[in-house]
Amino acid sequence: MTAIQAPVGRPAPAGAEARGRANRWWIYGLLTLGIVLMVGPFLWMLLGSLKPQAEFLVNPPTFLPKNPTLNNFERLFNELDFPRFFFNSSLVAVVVTVGNILFCPMLGYALAKLQWRGKRLIMGLVLATLMVPAGITLIPNFVLMSNLGLVNTYPGLILPFLVGPFGVFLTRQFMYGIPDELLEAARIDGANEWRTFWTIVLPITAPVLATLGILTFLGSWNSFLYPLVMAQEPEMYTLPVALSTFATGQYQADHGMLMAGSLVLVLPVLIIFIVFQRWITEGIATTGLKG
Amino acid sequence: ALSRGITRFRTAFRVGYYLPVITSIVAIAVVWRFLLNPDIGLINVLLKDIGINGPDWLASKTLAMPSIIAMAVWRNLGFAMVVFIAGLQAIPAMLYEAASIDGAGRWQSFRYVTLPMLRPTILFMLVITTIGYLQLFEEPFVMTDGGPLDATLSVTMYMYQQGFEFFKQGYASAIAYVLFVIVAVIAFLQFRFLRDDA
After folding, report:
1. pTM to 2 decimals?
2. DSSP code at position B56
3. Interface confidence (ipTM) of the complex
């Protein structure tokens, strides 16, 4: 046998490699500039929340707070009832997330693995729901809740979102990959469908459910338009609604407090994201859909 | 650039770029409204340092909407980045090697390998972003309340005003329906024009 030749068409001779290294610095530089632009406003928000009101009126404006103060946060929690709003947002987000984690895999499993009459129809409905943009179902949902007498209540805020088509779709796609033999073995061993679902299917689906949970939580936490119309008294406001009310109302010029409020709104999301970021971006890229 | 070749700080970069995407629009709108403040907003301050007297962005009929658009672009950059990274990673390296064998330079292989292979990804981004921003609401609501003389009034905001401020819910429902039709038509057209003809 003759000596094996190097594969034809190997790109990157030595010159290109050196050029690649120089390019790399350029790319890093550009990316860093981008990061500064992306993160900048958040930094500004943080700095602003620590400045006393007087410092905002100084000309030229300061960058770092000269007299950092927690006064804005104090006022948020004392004057403005922010703990209540925080609680509302948390309650709604948690219940909606739990609901999704519980119910979406049920429908997903039924659609992926079981045969039943009307399956096609339901799948079509789920897909249709997924494709209809959210703002358009605002009024129908509101009217529905209104007829049920649930306006300005927790159930009113939660019910329309207890199960979402995104979760159904996600779990269904995932469950296609569960080997049928596994399920048949369970059935042969005498487990009924319910048992099969709980003890076998759910644990396998756990990673996807985790991603779904995180995305659902974030979506519910940030949700604005619907809570805006559903919560009509301040005690029912969720965080985004409260913040926007103050931002467009009497506290318009109270920048320190607005920055502090924004920070409170953003912080849980930030923390969850940094901790779980791998799962989120992978989940979104795989399904190609945003929560 | 983030999908290949950059290994250091990759996570930090991705987190940073994605941050504006997952944070609440309300918070972002509030912060940006402050940034665009004509007297004490950071943007005009920086402009003044260069010697330009920045305008009142959100109160100007011609500049209000572009400002909101700029903010929306800023916000969605991270999402687009994630989607395109996924799309880029799906392009087999073999194609690039074949192209370079045929003598293609950087720009050419970008134009004839990368772009065509990215077509489905581009279509996806186009459709999702269009549908998403046809329903623009939070930004004009918080920042301009419809803008100086309705300059930033979006369809969804109009629907909200009619339905919940003027209590003409029938009319608002009609608005929603029409918006739905518009969205469906635009999505359909986008699919027609950019569909992968295999």
Report:
1. 0.80
2. -
3. 0.77
